[in-house]
Amino acid sequence: MAINTVPTMGGQDAPDAVYDARELGTPKMVVFGFQHMFAMFGATILVPVLTGLSVSATLLFAGLGTLLFHLLSQRKVPAFLGSSFAFIAGYAAIAPNGEPELLPYACLGVASAGLLYLVLSAAFKAFGAKRVMRFFPPVVTGPIVIAIGLILASSAIANCSTNWLVALVAIITIVVCNIWAKGMIRIIPILMGVIVSYIFAVIVGIVDFSGVQSAEWVGLPVLWDNTVFGILGEGFDSGLALTAVITIMPIAFATMIEHIGDISAISSTVNRNYIADPGLHRTLLGDGLATILASLFGAPANTTYGENTGVLALTHVFDPRVVRLAACFAIVFSFCPKFAAVIGAMPPSVIGGVSLVLYGMISSVGIRNLVESHVDFTKTRNVLVTALILVLSIGIAYSAAGAIVFSVGEITVSLSGLAIGSLAGILLNIILPEHDGDGIEPTLPRDHPKRQLMMEGPEGYDNIVEE
Q: Membrane-spanning regions, if any (predicted)?
């Protein structure tokens, strides 16, 4: 039944799995495609709602980015690329209130961050995973992810404060769906939180639908003035552009590690070793180019979506064609301004309730990264790296200035706390002694099986990847 030639993780196809959805017939393929689209929908459209970016452009480039990723990964990986939450802090640092004239500069910073994906992709191809990953251990990436969620927390509270009752409905709905719901509802708790709290907000009379009535049914999803190309030329602020690039690029160190984790999760779910074939160099290249393309045209950064991995686990339909169908549906929806207006009418309290949970989950992912990687905090160097990342990132973000500002000639540069904390953590991890006798993977206990494998050299790392 399987037509995919990727080597399996355990040597056998997953039981009851469908690797070629054409056997199910076109109607069922379409249904599964819609299911993937709705799974990514709530989180993907929430990013432009939180940042001020275009919902229509977001859907368009989520679809196009997914298709580009599939092309570059040899059409083997059933991954959907949706909006990345990790970069929200970067958008907030450059355009704190979603100012239309500032958002293109933030997008320029995100596009520059996408270039780091290409660099890491080339490094994986040239040097292998073991040598590259030594610079980005969990003791660095974990605290960065924790800081991202905590920095964003204040904006969630501010939005909730506009109507705590509506925000509470969103929070309760997400918790109930995530813990007690069954089937598909459990896979889309964020979308359910948005829908239920939005309906409740309509009932209590705090939603203004005037913009929906005036919106057209069909229109172009991208406006030139909202793109990076729209700010080039006369009036271009080189200082702000440099600030955006320096502030936002370090976030990519965390998202690239997240990408590797997502590909590992998809491999485990589908019972295919996508780390080996088509290889991380190809998946990183696809993710990076999709992020660059989306950002240049005013859409959020893309990332592989865990929600869709959940759908794979639920349905056991592992054919990438179904995911590509979902991408096509997202592209079609992007050409409906009336739909975007419905999203734009969402009250801040709905956004606040949902984002309160999401931002907390972002920090929780960072904590889980530290725990599951067995980072040893009895080692002073690990304590120092983590402490300085957190204190610098959060302390500077909530300081009176909110950033470190300095001048380079006539250009004024403003570095966010997250940028300073990330760079400090990466440099400290390189400078501080990394070994405690054998020089291998200092963040793992001596008796940890992965440590024992890595002591065997490159062959040992290959064994870890194959697991």
A: 53-72, 79-96, 102-123, 135-158, 164-181, 188-207, 227-253, 322-344, 350-371, 383-405, 411-432
